[in-house]
Amino acid sequence: MTTPDPFAVDPWGVVEHGFDLAGQARAESVFALSNGHIGLRGNLDEGEPHGLPGTYLNGVFELRPLPYAESGYGFPESGQSVINVTNGKLIRLLVDDEPFDLRYGEVRGHQRSLDFREGLLRRSAEWTSPAGRTVRVTSQRMVSLTQRAVAAVEYTVEAVDGPVRIVVQSELVANEQLPLGDGDPRAAAVLEAPLAAELRHAAGSKAVLVHRTRFSGLRVAAGIDHVIEGPGRVDTTAESSEDQARITATTVLKAGERLRLVKFIAYGWSATRSLPAVRDQVEAALTAARYTGWDGLVDEQKEYLGRFWSDSDIEIEGDVELQQAVRFALFHVLQAGARSEERAIPAKGLTGPGYDGHSFWDTETFVLPVLTYCLPAAVNQALRWRHTTLPMARDRAAQLGLAGAVFPWRTIRGEECSGYWPAGTAAFHIGADIAAAVVRYIRATGDLEFERAYGLELLVETARMWRSLGHHDAHGRFRIEGVTGPDEYSAVADNNVFTNLMAQSNLRSAAESATRHQFEAAALGVDTEEAAAWRDAADKMFIPYDEKLGVHPQADGFTDHQLWDFEGTPPEKYPLLLHYPYFDLYRKQVVKQADLVLAMQVRGDAFTQEQKVRNFNYYERLTVRDSSLSACTQAVIAAEVGQLDLAYDYTAEAALMDLRDLGGNTRDGLHMASLAGACIALVAGFGGLRDHDEHLSFRPRLPSGLQRLAFSMAVREHLLRIDITHATTTYTLLRGGVLPILHEGESLRVEKGRPVVRPTQTPQTPAERAVQPPGREPARRHGQAGVQVGTVDHLPAE
Ligand code: BGC
C-alpha cells in the first residue's frame, strides 16, 4: 500500500489513502494538530506502529549538559530539549483478544484526512484480524483552538461481523520509549525517561498523572475523561501506575453495532505552582471540556477557523497544488501561534522535536510577518514572550561584555542554547530581527500600549547592544565586526550588509520610539545623548560595496573569496554542512541561504533597482539553498527583478517543503519558516507588498502559470482585500473607514464600499533567467503536468 506521494491534492485539506509504514514519521508531522500550547503528532490512535511518538507542551523541556571538547569563556553550559510529555491520545483496541495493529491481519481500507476549515484529523480503517474478525474503526481528533488546555478524540469501533468481543483501552502514558536518533545535527537529542512520577489517580471514567522533569523542575499534569456509549452492556475499569493510567471499556458487539468513546484530554504545566494547583487546573479543564461536549468542541473549532479563513485566506487560481500547499502553510502557522501565549514559537512549531524544539530568528523574520496581518494578538503574545526573557538577555550581554540585551540564537526558555558560537552567539542579527518584528507589529496595529509597556524596552535594549558591539572608525563610519549574518556558510565576518542594515533600522526605531514615549524612555535611563548616539551610528552605518563588480559583498571581502567548486560537488554531497568542514565553507563564496538577498527584501529602500538586479544575479550563482529559509526570499526578489517564472518555482518550493518532503526531514517536524515563507513569497513576491514605510505599498504582478491571486490583510481596524489578475488589481476595504496605500508608487485612498481598480503591471522580463549552481536549480513549476487531484472525503461524523 505504499505510494510514493501519499497525499492527494485538495484545495482545503490533506488526504492520505492507504497506509505507508515507511512514511509514518513524515505523515505524523503533516497531520500534527496544535494550538500553540499543546502539540500532538499525527500518531495512530493505537500508538503503534509509529515513526516518532510525540506530544508536546510549549515551554516544557529538560536540561541537558552541553559538553565541549575544548571549552571557552561564555560557552553555554546547558542545553534545553523539548520532551515528549505524557501521551494522552492513546486508544488501544483488542478484537477478540487480538490487538488492532495495521502490521498484522488485513488492512482492507485506511484513510486519514485533515480539513483546514474544521481543524479535525479524521481516520477510517477497516481491518480483519489474523483470526478473521473484521471491524471498522473511525476516529476524529482535535486540539482545541478555543479551550487552550484541551484536546479530544471521538473513537468508534463497529463490528462488521460478529458477535465480537471488543476491549478499548484509553490511556495516559509517560516516558514512552523513543526511537534512537540518526545523528543528523538538525534532529533532537533523545532523552531517556525525563519524567519523574509525582501523582497518579484513576477512578470511574477519569484519570490524572502528574510528573516532574528531573533537572528543569517543571511539573506536568495530564488528565483524561470519557463518555462511553455502546448498544448493550459495557463494563469499565480504571487503573493507574507511575507512568500509566488506563480506562478500559469492554463489550460484545453484534454485526453492525458500534461502541463510541469520546476522550477528553487536558494538560497543564508550571515551573512554580504546587502539585494540587496543577492537578486542579487539569481537572477543571476536563470538566469544562466535558461540559462543552464533543459536538460543542467541534462547533467552536469550526467557528474559530471559519473566522480565520474568512479574514485570512490566500486564494490562488491556476495551480491547485499550490493552493493546497499555501492553505496547509497558513493552517500550520496558525496552529503554531494561535494560543502560544507568552511562549516561544519553535522552528518546528509543536509538530516534532527537530532542532530540539528551539526557537530561532525564524519566528520574528518569517512567522510573525505573516501573523501580524492575520492574527496580530498572537504576535503581541510572541513578542511579550521575548520581553519576559529580557533579564536573561541582559545577563548574556553583560557576560559578553556588551551593553543592553543579547537575545539567544536558539532557546526554549530564554537562555542561549547554541553550543556552536560562530553560528550561534555571533548571529547578533537576532536582536534586530526582534526589533523589526516589534516595529512592524506596532505599525500594523497602532498598539501604543504595547509599545509603551514592551516594545520600547525591546528596541532600547537591542539598540544599546548594537551601539556597544559596533564602533566608529577613523573615518567616522560605524562598523559592526565579527558577526554572522543569516547565511550559515559564512561566519564571523565584518560588516555583514544584512546585519548592518537591520541594526541601522533598529537604532533609528529605538530613537523614534524613545521620542514618542519620553517618560517611559527616561525611566529606562535613555537621555537625549544616548538617542543621539543611536541616530549617529545609524546615519554613519557602513555598507560595503564592491565597485569593481558593481555588487554588494555579503560582508567585507566576500566577493574576493575563492569560489566554491560547484562543478566538482556531486548532488549527494548536499546539504554541504553534512559533507564538508565549516572551515572550508566559511572561506569560500558559497551561500547556504538568502542573506544579501534578504537584505534587499527587508531593507529594499537601501538599494537601487539596478543594484537589486545585479546583486540578485550574482548571489543566485552562489546560493545552494541548504536551508529551507531561502527559497521564499529568493522568490520575493526574483519577482521584484521581473523573473516571475523563477519566483513561481521558488514559491512552490517553499510551499511544498513539507507536503512533498523536499528536504527529506519532515519527519522531525514541519518547517514553520518555510511555510510562513510561502505566504510571504505570494504576498510580498507577487503581491509586491513592502511594509517598511508608514503606508503599505504594493507592486502586483503574476507569473504566467497563475490566473489570480487574492489575499487580505488586517491593518489596525481595517481589513484590506487585494485581488490580482493579469489585467487588474482591485483593492477593497472589507472593514474600516479609509486606508491610504501605495500602488506602483501611486498614493491611493481605499474606502469601504468603493473598491479601487488599477492595471496590473507586466514587468520587463530580463533577457536571461538567473543561473543557480549546477544541480541546485529549483524544480520548474510552469506548465507542470500530471498533478494528481483528489478531494477530502468526509468520513461519517458520528
Ligand atoms: C538555518 C537557520 C535557521 C535554523 C532553524 C538553519 O538551518 O540556517 O537560519 O534559523 O535552521 O530553522
TrEMBL record:
Superkingdom of source: Bacteria
GO molecular-function terms, A-Z: hydrolase activity
Family: Belongs to the glycosyl hydrolase 65 family.
Key words, A-Z: Glycosidase, Hydrolase
Name by which UniProt lists this protein: Glycosyl hydrolase family 65 protein
Residues in Glycoside hydrolase family 65 C-terminal domain copies: 689-750
Organism taxonomic ancestry: Bacteria, Bacillati, Actinomycetota, Actinomycetes, Kitasatosporales
InterPro entries: 6-hairpin_glycosidase_sf, 6hp_glycosidase-like_sf, Gal_mutarotase_sf_dom, GH65_N, Glyco_hydro_65_C, Glyco_hydro_65_M, Glyco_hydro_65_N, Malt_Pase/Glycosyl_Hdrlase
Residues annotated as domain Glycoside hydrolase family 65 N-terminal: 15-270
All residue ranges annotated as the Glycoside hydrolase family 65 central catalytic domain in the record: 327-678
Segments of this protein annotated with the region Disordered: 753-798
One Pfam family per UniProt: Glyco_hydro_65N
PANTHER family, per the entry: GLYCOSYL HYDROLASE-RELATED (PTHR11051), GLYCOSYL TRANSFERASE (PTHR11051:SF13)
Biased composition (Low complexity): 756-766
